[in-house]
Specification:
By secondary structure, the chain is of the alpha/beta class. Helix content is 38%, strand content 15%. An 8-stranded mixed sheet has the order 4-3-2-5-1-6-7-8, sandwiched between helices. A 6-stranded mixed sheet has the order 9-10-14-11-12-13.
């Protein structure tokens, strides 16, 4: 199978599993790990959990550990440009077919025994964990998907756990109180682990989980350094980690007009982006999923500009552009609002308005929107 699986076949296999949706629970993952001979036990692990900033933290930890002589594998989710973004070893993306093919026999066996499908995220996760063992990495930096307790990545026993922050998101699955969400995310902590917190209020919860050390780091850079130092057992400098950039994370992709892509997909992320970009005037092109706190997101985005183009990503949970426009009008926080169903056409309209007004263009609200625009993605501007 590994010799004949093409890139197109691998992509089709992965995309076909999207129909199974999210099925939280660890039984299938534990069976898969056993079927594969427990590859997740062959390297040390830094596990990154939290509401926002996980991918950036993971990539920056990767950069810092590589700079300090570690062979590092990194697993991220979701992706913006291609699925290969999720699998990296020594800073190089792995080919999708090369990571998917070796686990398909185990998937077939477990599905037959369990009588239920392996989900898309489970398939991608076992593919990553197995590939890291095959590549003989020293350390895997693994980003959790949804929550922690029942997330597919919680088959790992991590020596270092990073909790970036806690905000309201995925309330249906995780709860509507920050304290409850913190419990869910910190459930990945094993006794004896070092926990790096972005917020000190969760210290007692980490200790209750059995953490041997709890470190509080107030800034993203401090969290990255603390995690790397906890793994290495010695002090390190920030090195090149702070310069690490990810697709779709406050990314400048074009100039004239200046165009920024960011996957801010909840109120906390939108508020952070508003602070990061400051008072400059932007034309906004937004798509937002229906299960988000749409009103709070729009209020935060309104701090960045008075002109809004609403659109609809291809994700099944995306609000229709017209419906998002009506919600935005009800908030009375944008002077100009238009609805353009097609994301490519919406971006083009935003470019025209931004170019005519001297404003920057911001594409945001959902990583799915950014993925839909990959075909027209400009070259990154430093």
């Amino acid at each position: 199978m590994s010799a004949t699986l093409s890139a197109a076949d691998a992509l089709a296999l992965v995309e076909a599993r999207d129909r199974f949706g999210v099925q939280l629970g660890l039984d299938r993952m534990r069976r898969l790990m056993a079927e594969l001979g427990h590859p997740e036990r062959r390297y040390r692990v830094v596990h990154v959990v939290g509401t926002n900033g996980k991918s950036t933290a993971a990539r920056r930890i990767e950069a810092l550990l590589r700079a300090n002589g570690q062979r590092a594998g990194t697993y991220l989710s979701p992706h913006v440009i291609s699925l290969a973004e999720r699998f990296r070893v020594d800073g190089v993306e792995l080919e999708l077919s090369s990571v998917i093919a070796p686990v398909l026999e185990a998937v077939d066996t477990v599905e037959a025994d369990a009588g239920e499908p392996v989900t898309q995220f489970e398939l991608l996760t076992i593919a990553a964990l197995n590939a890291f063992a095959a590549e003989a990495v020293d350390v895997a930096i693994v980003e959790a998907g949804l929550g922690g307790r029942h997330d597919a990545t919680n088959v790992l026993s991590a020596e270092v756990v990073v909790l970036t922050n806690i905000a309201l998101d995925h309330e249906k699955e995780l709860g509507t109180e920050r304290s409850v969400i913190a419990d869910e995310k910190l459930a990945v902590v094993d006794p004896g682990a070092t926990v790096v917190l972005g917020e000190p209020e969760w210290r007692d919860k980490a200790i209750a989980r059995g953490a041997e050390r709890v470190l509080v780091a107030n800034t993203p850079s401090e969290r990255v350094i603390a995690a790397a130092e906890a793994h290495l057992g010695r002090s390190v400098g920030a090195g090149s980690a702070a310069a690490t950039l990810l697709p779709g994370r406050c990314e400048v992709v074009a100039d004239q007009p200046r165009e920024i892509w960011d996957g801010a997909h909840n109120p906390h992320a939108a508020a952070w982006l508003a602070r990061e970009l400051g008072a400059s005037e932007h034309v906004l092109v937004l798509s937002i999923l229906e299960d988000k706190d749409v009103e709070q997101m729009l209020d935060a985005f309104a701090r960045l500009g008075s002109t809004l183009i609403t659109t609809t990503s291809t994700n099944a949970r995306a609000l229709p552009a017209h419906e998002l426009m009506l919600i935005a009008r009800s908030r009375n926080c944008f002077a100009t609002i238009e609805a353009v169903d097609d994301p490519v056409a919406a971006r083009a309209r935003g470019q025209a308005l931004a170019g005519g007004s001297g404003s920057a263009l911001l594409i945001s609200g959902s990583l799915y929107l950014l993925h839909d625009l990959v075909a027209v993605r400009p070259r990154r501007v430093p």
